[in-house]
């Protein structure tokens, strides 16, 4: 017996959710996505772009595993919508380095045994890169405080700290304009200099 | 999250008009760090979001009276690290940096910080009665687990607290909130912005539907010489306050000539007690003076069963914060708990 429905539906068939297109520059490459408005940036990266380096830990902005950089500034990608970030210059863990060419932070994380299960690690590294870009943390106490938005259930904190301190003490590792994208590099709103 | 439509106007008038079309079911979104969290929990279910991020409200500018206007869209991080805020209003800088995480501070806006909602566990849990979420259903926190709840200004309908650190400093400094509406603009003194729960716990603040925060004005006096933001919490960082104190003093030698004292974690709004401040003014900046003011602040305090510790903790925190403000002994930029001696 056929399982195909023989009669026409007697109600409105369900429709696909409304979508809109959004232009994002990710790791230097321009992407055009078609997403529903309620798609978070995190889900856009992981589900629409197959960039699964960024992790979904809590999905509520409480763990930092979803940390990415926008114009060099660290944010929780789970608490923003893809459509809100039209035109943004986004760097994910995939954009900070490759297995053949680790960034200074990535190398330091390896050298200092700064991860165990590795789940928090992409967020830790993106967050640490953001910390270096900010240029505010100088001492261990300040690094601890300014990394407090990234939780590690394995407890790798002491080694995460020493990895970051090594990169900090080695001097300039802040992202320069070239690492963001061609064209739009500076944040649009810059109240300090306006 | 429920499904919704999304718009991103370029002008304030357009944003106000959009909101007024369906004022109850449309929400403004700026940083989104609280609203999206609430939407993921289905506590907030707007059918339309109006993204404010293209509006021209992201500057910090000096005011003719010597004060400073914070545009509503300036991020908390940019505000804290702004040179004028760091030098002239370091109490605000320390309060902002005591809150949330660097990632959240890079996203959250000043306007949004005022509007963030309580983190009461029952407010967040749709399975439990909550007069704030659904008026008339009851308050699960009263008689329940109320560690993070209010000891001052609460009512029989609601014992929720306002979770912001930035707002405690703004209350101490006496800021003014600038607001726009299709029918006109107005200014709201900070002490009148947030409400006490009373019989209307569903209302957090005194904005009328459709109103948009455009800026927060800081007065000329920033108490940059003697201040302390003390935050006590269950973790040494990245947690909401059980008790926080914003203390600011103007000293003439050992004598207090002006004083501001605001508490977080104790009420539905940042708690200022002008009578307690009056007990400080004209007095020597000593522990005895501070204890007298602290006793006044908690005189009407009421524990709810699992937060009774807050009453004594608040008293001691006030004394310590005032002492730190006098001596300028609090380490700056490490978390507010570490390395401070009682």
Describe this structure in words.
The complex is a heterodimer of chains A (194) and B (342). Chain A is of the alpha+beta class and 194 residues long. Chain A folds into two domains: 20-96, Roll (Ubiquitin-like (UB roll)); 104-169, [2Fe-2S]-binding domain (DNA polymerase, domain 1). Chain A is built from seven helices and five strands, in the order ββαβββαααααα. Chain A has helices at residues 41-48, 93-96, 104-111, 121-134, 140-146, 157-169, 177-180, and strands at residues 20-26, 29-35, 67-70, 73-76, 89-91. Chain A has a five-stranded mixed sheet, with helices on both faces. In chain A, a hairpin with a 2-residue loop joins strand 3 and strand 4 (73-76). In chain A, helix 3 (104-111) packs across helix 6 (157-169). By secondary structure, chain B is of the alpha+beta class. In chain B, a hairpin with a 2-residue loop joins strand 10 (243-252) and strand 11. In chain B, 28% of the residues lie in helices and 19% in strands. Chain B starts with a strand and ends in a 15-residue tail after the last helix. Among the domains of chain B are: 5-50, 2-Layer Sandwich (Uridine Diphospho-n-acetylenolpyruvylglucosamine Reductase, domain 2), CATH 3.30.43; 227-327, CO dehydrogenase flavoprotein, C-terminal domain (Enolase-like, domain 1). In chain B, helix 5 runs antiparallel to helix 9 (166-173), helix 10 packs antiparallel against helix 11 (287-297) and helix 11 packs antiparallel against helix 12. In chain B, the strands form three sheets. In chain B, strands 4-5-8-6-7 form a five-stranded antiparallel sheet, with no helix packed on it. Chain B has a four-stranded antiparallel sheet with strand order 9-10-11-12, sandwiched between helices. Chains A and B meet through strand 4, helix 4 and helix 5 of A and helix 2, helix 3 and helix 6 of B.
Task: Tell me briefly what this model is.
The complex is a heterodimer of chains A (194) and B (342). Chain A is of the alpha+beta class and 194 residues long.
